[in-house]
Amino acid sequence: MVYTKPHHEKKVTVNLKLAGIESFLPCVKKLRVWSDRRKFAEEPLFPSYVFVNLNDLQSYYMSLDIGGILHYVREGEQIATVDETIINNLRRLVLDYRKDIEVTTETISSGKKLVIKDGPFTGFRCEVIQHRGKEKILVRIKLLQRNVLLDVPSEYLMPLSVMNYC
Asked: Where would a tag sit more exposed on the chain, N or C end, judged by fewer CB atoms within 10 A?
């Protein structure tokens, strides 16, 4: 994962692709309001962060030359990695729920562990919490200290124990 200059995420993603380096920039549609108009605009889910998949050392050095990248996010001496299942879940979330995703830095206590039984995430295990009076699915991104929340109909959920018996 790289940390970019403010508002350079899309440009960095394009330049990484041109360099042959796999990257992922989760974006959501947000309503922007100006004094004379309102418009939905695509904005990064995590401002100033782009997920990068480095295959080799050469890709690492090539990416350092791309304008807009400030540095790689690190955990101690190592470049930080995000679990592939979280990346895949984020890909599906932004494809299917582009307007209904909320990112928060609040500390959220553990919720009920359930399984999604219907809809685009059928079979996925999830954590369901109460947030602002609504049930929401929670995806924790510990590295960024962020939580991704989205609404899901309660009829799409079933207890994890039922899934274990199937």
From this structure: C
